[in-house]
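pasting for ref
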Amino acid sequence: MGLPAISPSPNTSKRAHQHAIYPYLLRDLTITQPTHVWGVDITCIRLRSGWVYLYAVLDWYSRFVVSWTLDVTLDMGFVLAAIRTALSLATPTICNSDQDRHFSSPFYTDLLRDAHVHLSMDGKGRALNNLFTERLWRTVKYEEVYLKKYASPNDAHRSLTDYFESTIPNTFTSHLPPKP
């Protein structure tokens, strides 16, 4: 009948046991303003042949995607580039992630700690602790990714750029005090 199945993506959340793990700081926390809490995560996007990996920084108060990037590998560079871009716009009080090796890497954690950001990590198997970011993935995939068959990483990047620019209002920075 030509109906493709929507199946789970490859598991990208692999913990590096030698890296430090930080406590979950968001239990019973009321998020009161932009930059109070950012959530970050990586998801997989299927191409006609292969995969690309999408990383996003989401402000949980405004639900604005502060920064995002796409890469064909799971190397650390694309995550660091996007978080640096986000930190150039604002500095959150807390940044929440899972315990993935990217987010527990000293390169990543030192970058956030040097910016005086508190690190929060979900426990193993606790995807609902990162609910807003998981909801972003669902929205992006059902409204954009599953409707298209990206031929290449460049095709995916162009289409996702159009999607993020057209569907997510750019009101985040208008509510921020100027960076010192």
